[in-house]
Amino acid sequence: xxxxxxxxxxxxxxxxxxxxxxxxxxxxxxxxxxxxxxxxxxxxxxxxxxxxxxxxxxxxxxxxxxxxxxxxxxxxxxxxxxxxxxxxxxxxxxxxxxxxxxxxxxxxxxxxxxxxxxxxxxxxxxxxxxxxxxxxxxxxxxxxxxxxxxxxxxxxxxxxxxxxxxxxxxxxxxxxxxxxxxxxxxxxxxxxxxxxxxxxxxxxxxxxxxxxxxxxxxxxxxxxxxxxxxxxxxxxxxxxxxxxxxxxxxxxxxxxxxxxxxxxxxxxxxxxxxxxxxxxxxxxxxxx
Length: 288
Hints:
With 288 residues, this protein is an alpha/beta fold. It has helices spanning 17-20, 23-27, 33-42, 59-66, 79-83, 137-147, 177-187, 193-199, 231-260, 263-282; strands at residues 3-8, 49-53, 70-75, 95-97, 104-109, 115-117, 120-126, 148-159, 164-165, 168-169, 189-191, 216-223.
């Protein structure tokens, strides 16, 4: 790839609460090996082109680059850029600042000076959309659609709780998943259940089975009317993973049932399980 450049009339979201109180970009640098493994099985490293919106420290971008893929990050605040925090010190040519509620465009520039618009088959936004005021969501989605390659997928997690720090309202749009699915559909992005089922529990952030314990949900989207890239491969991978994913679901359900029990029930069951193990050991048989 050639040199990456960005065009934007607003290089920093100067009036955003997340720039005025940059707690997110100052603290976050999330990576998740399980997410990367799933993504790169679906779209091999030599083919993946990922744009991470709200990239904070740039951890995901660097992890994709290290795996042999291509990735770029956009962050609304210049806090991490100015102090060289996290991956801004290691991959500065792949991380940029811009107010993504305003139009921006990414280009690849060849040594001869020719510029080509960059398009991405994966666009991610982790715990990002809730930071955008409802009136500005359309501008964000326009930027996503401008940079999304045909068949490309959008992967995101969205928090469903308010955050106010030092008088700054950081989560400006707080709704549960059905509201977001409808809003995205109005703006030209359709929920893609097939992709959600494939990633299952292996998202960078968020959970497919939202509950107050997780407080954020995961969602996959495609351009309205389009199937996800390499849909046949996606379907084969999902079927191959099915036994493993079913086992994980059963395990998580057991945990949720356990934590939903009153402490007195947990104590009784623990005592009975301990007594059973002792009885088995006394007979000289190792418990399973």
